Amino acid sequence: MASLSLENICKIYPNGFEAVKDFNLEINDKDFIIFVGPSGCGKSTTLRMIAGLEDISKGTLKIDGKVVNDVEAKDRDIAMVFQSYALYPHLTVYDNMAFGLKLKKVPKEEIDKKVRHAAKILDLEKLLDRKPKALSGGQRQRVAMGRAIVRQPKVFLMDEPLSNLDAKLRVQMRTEIAKLHERLGATMIYVTHDQTEAMTLGTKIVVMKDGVIQQVDTPQNLYNYPQ
Ligand code: ADP
Ligand code: ADP
Prior knowledge:
Blueprint: E1 4-12, E2 18-27, E3 32-36, H1 43-51, E4 58-63, E5 66-67, E6 78-81, H2 93-103, H3 108-121, H4 137-149, E7 155-159, H5 167-184, E8 187-191, H6 195-201, E9 204-209, E10 212-217, H7 219-223
Parallel strand pairs: 3-8, 3-9, 6-7, 7-8
Antiparallel strand pairs: 1-2, 1-4, 4-5, 9-10
Helix pairs in contact: 2-3, 2-4
């Protein structure tokens, strides 16, 4: 878990387009922040800046009070789960989950423990030897989640992780993500177009439009439903 502070963050792409403008947000330990807004409003750009996969053009990003603008992605203690899952097709489920830890030269026994623990949480124990092409969409999605979990990040960033799944799996995975948030005590930042996901998962909803925050509120207030 971690707190994040986004202070006057801007993103200007090399072609001069300002995708995120003067973004200010305080995120507390264990928050489950949801970003909503029309396609192209800057949600993914903001996530990628937090992950360190995109430079911050202006402003300051702090994690637990420390400025991290110039800290590389791999040193940020943040994991990102993409909509496309981005699994390695030639690696097994086990190796997909172990890959990042191997790069970091984590001892084999420790990797094994972490991968098996994540597999247990995500119900992937019987699938560890399979390659991604032999998995269903929901299973691939869980592997992508597993790859993030094994790194035990303080912050999880998820960019529409459920949008490629059918309705039934989406409901199932939504419950899993809520449980993970509880169990891991991690801070989550989550992009979705799905109002049910926003309402059931979020502690705070950030509404964006044209690179600007329009509103920040609890799901109860924003969607005005009775408690
Ligand atoms: P969202 O995730 O809300 O759909 P994005 O953050 O992906 O929005 O994109 C925000 C805006 O920035 C869009 O108008 C998009 O076309 C633009 N954009 C994204 N990547 C680049 C880039 N590399 N160069 C220029 N413009 C970009
Ligand atoms: P991987 O695909 O396993 O992340 P890469 O070679 O792409 O491996 O990246 C090297 C390191 O950069 C990874 O071990 C990881 O720590 C970090 N990294 C890569 N992608 C992300 C991401 N989406 N979020 C945070 N850190 C990342």
